[in-house]
Fold these 4 entries.
Entry 1:
Amino acid sequence: QVHLVESGGGLVQPGGSLSLSCAASGIIFSINAMGWYRQAPGKQRELVAVITSGSSSNYAASVKGRFTISRDNAKNTVYLQMNSLKPEDTAVYYCNARIRPYSNWREYIYWGQGTQVTVSS
């Protein structure tokens, strides 16, 4: 019923920039927090950034000052602007959202399919 579609991944050189987007579609009454996670080979999935419905944001220490999360509530879309990329940023990036499909239903957690970000020379 609800799908998160991500785009914007790719290959970039160190110091470069990429912008990721994730659009939620389907039966949606409201969206609470939306976030970005990433998982590198051999490592656990970790939180990169999260943004609430009121646009309050929080970042992992490793990306703070370089990444910016934002959202467009009218489009049910969350963005991640990534600047000054480093090789250690290489990972599969996953979109996450806490969505209430109906007003009298609880919130459900949804995940995007993931998009590969590779930072390499």
Entry 2:
Amino acid sequence: QVQLVESGGGLVQAGGSLRLSCAASGRTFGAYTMGWFRQAPRKEREFVTSITRGGGTTQYADSVKGRFTISRDNAKNTVYLQMNSLKPEDTAVYYCAAASVWNSARASEYNYWGQGTQVTVSS
């Protein structure tokens, strides 16, 4: 079992940057692919990015490619999401998730989820 806690959300102006962190419990963090998803008000949860166990493979949604960067530090049991050039449409609750599959952009394949952290981008 993995417990995930996101942090780092907040209010930022368009064009600004924010870094989210996801702290994972347990000694098996390195066995999971980690992903970030987001859900805007009245919208479905959508895939943002993922990173494989060793950090060698990443995926990004087209909407964030070139602006967001996912990374992980297995020694610290933490995954990060660096968000640059933020846009108002990035406003959402951001969720950290863990999957036992090799890699996935599908929410249904993620086994564990954090509580989410709010990111609000003002224009």
Entry 3:
Amino acid sequence: QVQLVESGGGLVQAGGSLRLSCVASGRTLSSYTIGWFRQAPGKEREFVAAIRWSGGSTYYADSVKGRFTISRDNAKNTVYLQANSLKPEDADDYYCAASVKVRIGSWRHMEYWGKGTLVTVSS
């Protein structure tokens, strides 16, 4: 299996930035897609961004395009989400997830999940 551990969440003022990290261990990630998702209380889990480990193709939700950047560090088995120009509506629990078979934009197709890291945005 793949184990995922997120970090980097915290409290930031609107307009500020955070860098979230997702450290993966276990199986080789060469065939995996790693995604970031977020969920606020009472709301459905939402796709944020994804990256294919092999090749590095990236995908973004329209709501974060131009503000968030997903990247990977192969040597560290880590995926990052650089979140800039944060808005109050970005405040959520952020989860990273991994899967070989994916449907970009859908959390239901992800196989492995981290426990999440909380992002709070104050106005």
Entry 4:
Amino acid sequence: QVQLVESGGGLVQTGGSLRLSCAASGSIESINNMGWFRQAPGRLREPVASITGGGITYLPGSVKGRFTVSRDNAKNTVYLQMNNLKPEDTAVYYCNADVRSSPRDRYFSYWGQGTQVTVSS
């Protein structure tokens, strides 16, 4: 089985920074796309960052210029560096990864449990 575990969430003031980490473990042959989603109370889960196996990144306009996504393939880990945080960024942040487990020849999508990010004003 495959498990994703997020860490690095916490409470910061407006303008502060946090770095989230998500480590995948278990039966892993390879990992393709990885990314981050967030969900605030009363709102749907929304994507905030993604990175392909080749290192191509995407960030929506709401976070572009403030957030950076990266990965360390040797550690099966994806990171989200969040700078200049705003109260609107307050949410539970979830890690997502497409993982291939040998001997299967396709990828399956997995989700982490989530880590709370709270930005106070």
